[in-house]
Amino acid sequence: MDVRKIVVVVEDVDAARAALKWALHNLLRYGDLITLLHVFSPAMNSSRCKNKTRLLRLKGYQLALSFKDICNSFNTNVEIIVTEGDPEGGKIAAMVREIGASALVAGLHDRSFLYK
């Protein structure tokens, strides 16, 4: 059986958690790899902004860990990627191509990058 790579966009909204649960129940097969991807907006360049960037990365990782907790009961392979990028979804698309994912799962909500 071929191992599939499934990317799930991690955002701090209920729709993103619902999308992950949907993927776990309806898309996931034994041996598949779930990649939890969180992309945060870049900060401007300065020492103060470097601290802000570090804080945003930490918060993104903590959020992704809470999504990983949802995955634990499904006994699946999970990896976490937290990266800086554009809010319009260009970085998400680039990461999906780079990973070679067979599926992208994102929760649809009123502030979603899909509407931009």
Automatic annotation (TrEMBL):
Name of the protein described by the UniProt record:
UspA domain-containing protein
Q: Which Gene3D superfamilies match?
A: HUPs
User: What organism, scientifically named, is this protein from?
Assistant: Salix brachista
Give the UspA domain ranges. 4-114
Q: Which InterPro entries match?
A: Rossmann-like_a/b/a_fold (IPR014729), UspA (IPR006016)
Pfam families the UniProt entry points to = Usp
Record lineage: Eukaryota, Viridiplantae, Streptophyta, Embryophyta, Tracheophyta
